[in-house]
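Tutorial handout. Part one gives the primary structure; part two gives the three-dimensional structure as tokens.
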Amino acid sequence: MILETERLKLVPPANTYINTLFEVHSNPLNQKYNPNGPVTSMETFKETLNQWIQHYDTHGFGYYVLIKKEDYEPIGMCGLQFKEIKGQTYLNIYYRIESVQTRKGYVGEASERVISHVKELTNNQYQIVALTKKENEPSIKTAESLGLKHDSTFDDYNEEGNVYYFSE
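Part two.
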């Protein structure tokens, strides 16, 4: 199902977009806060994209490709997938866009639309979580703008420097 916002079309993940998405995920500017660094192998990224496609096919939602309506250019990904943390299932929000497209409100716009859609599909039975690094101010600001709150009891869980923001 294609979702829309004022400026974006959010389309399910597909191999059609692999080259653009690989560029987004392999560009060091877009991966500044990713502790694993940029993706370096197209083969590895194909596996990741296939996992995203499988999640979408299984659950009817997941990570979406963000396409600007003005020029039909894909600029990144945004969405929700199931994630297990400390034995509990959450909806993990993920966003990654080209660095030249940041600070234009695209991530917030897409996130709000996806959250609304997925809450409806899942009868709002899961908390949303944003996992980021404590120095990733842009991601933290986005999480807070979406109404997520920092839970310090999860700090450094799974990896040093991790912080978690949860919906209520």
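Part three, for discussion. Residues 3-166 form a domain with the Aminopeptidase fold (CATH 3.40.630.30). Residues 42-59 form the longest helix (18 residues).
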